[in-house]
Amino acid sequence: MKTLSTAATLILVLSACSVPNSSETRTVQLSEVGSGPAGDASGLVSPSRLNAQLVEHADFDSEYVQARNITVWLPDGYLPYGNERYPVIYAHDGQNLFEPGRSYGGVEWGLDETAERMMRTGALPPANIVGNWNTDERWQEYAPQKVIESLSGNTSSEWLGPTLPTLKADAYLKFITEELKPFIAETNQPAPAREQTYIMGASMGGLISLYAMAEYPDTFSRAAAVSIHWPLTEPDGNLAQQADAAMQAYLSTSGLDKTRQTIWFDHGTETLDAAYPPHAAAMESWFRAQGWSQDEAIFRAYPGTDHSEGAWATRADEILAFLLSEDHSSD
User: What is the DSSP letter of 244?
Assistant: First the structure.
């Protein structure tokens, strides 16, 4: 069954742009979510600890890619400017994670509410979530550059045009690792070790998360690739037929390391996700053949769910539990 009626619809989904960047820096106190300032055993409130909050850095500049907004979620009881090191999740499509008024289609992941609920009960340790907003060059930044460059055949498809667009995934990852990550360490907390540095995203964001693991194994220890767009381009196109083999060839010579990294892959079965099961099966077979166990490369299917922020929000608790749990022996 064809999952989308036109290539234009697919382009809209995979290249979904952010709302225009704001020139205002905002800090949103999430008092309705947080449990209030933390106290000691006597119940006295410590003013140095904060309620859960969103801190937005507008028009964050970069030498490598377009400026964009960065939204950082800080957990309830967060202690600023201390020596405590919090795990950090770098999450793509940052405008879709926390606030419905800014998200694509008006639906958010609700990562802040889910994280706060799970951390409040002790199910997860406190952590920071860094939301990198996308731009109008989302596809160029999120498409795994070395994989795309290895594809052959008809590049004059309805999707790619007569020539390949300028690919910027390598530049985007330099932005995260060389500019954003040091900034987060400087303005929030000392940077955690790689064992507590994670990356996540959905669709094309899943692809760039896997690519980040392969390109920077000394930086990222876990990734969540949600509804990962294995076809790379339109699911029925010529290039999609090469996608699995091209990805496997790239990964086999990359820095991806099952002894130090763990990865979550998932997909639904409706709308665009309906095209993913055959690719997921092929990729899971490849990972198993390379010796990755079911705990090192996790493949999940969510029957009846579609390709949307609303669908991803319903499994955000499982995704966060994977990233932040402390029982992954490969790390």
Answer: H
